[in-house]
Amino acid sequence: MIRLIARRLMSSTPEEKLIFDKLSKQLSPKNMHVQDVSGGCGSMFAIDITSDKFKGLTMVKQHKLVNKILEDDIKRWHGLQLRTRSD
After folding, report:
1. Domain 14-85: CATH architecture, name and number where available
2. β-strand 79-85 against 44-50: which pairing, if any?
3. Sheet arrangement for strand 31-36
4. End-to-end alpha carbon distance in the chain
5. What is the DSSP code (8-state) at residue 76?
6. Given 3-state DSSP classes, what are the helix, strand and coil percentages for the chain, each rounded to the nearest 5?
7. DSSP SS3 for 37
8. What is the pLDDT of residues 42-53, one digit of tens each?
9. Pairwise CA distance, residues 32 & 41, whole Å
10. Contact, 42 vs 29, CB < 8 A?
């Protein structure tokens, strides 16, 4: 089961949902948390994701994979807190 944890009692912002949907489609995660940590303005996100697609990849390559999936979105952000693992 994949969970989206947002800052407002299990609701999500449109941007959090967009990120969640893009990563879910490409990485089939076992677990994922996406949170707008910018105070609600959509300029910084924390993403914690576990996926079998990361197996055998270094942390740098895992992060590059996520960055590639989100490259169009990242251009609009001030920052990204990213935690990846293969389980």
Report:
1. 2-Layer Sandwich (3.30)
2. parallel
3. 31-36, 44-50, 79-85
4. 14
5. T
6. 35, 25, 40
7. coil
8. 899 999 999 999
9. 21
10. no
Alpha-carbon span 69 to 74, nearest angstrom: 10
Share of the chain above pLDDT 90, in %: 79
Q: pLDDT tens digits for 68-79?
A: 999 999 999 999
pTM, two decimals, is 0.85
Cα–Cα distance between 32 and 5 in angstroms, integer?
8
Query: What count of Cα atoms within 13 Å lies in the side-chain half-sphere of residue 55?
Result: 7
CB 38 within 8 A of CB 10: no
Cβ within 8 Å of residue 53, ≥6 positions away: 26, 27, 28, 65, 86
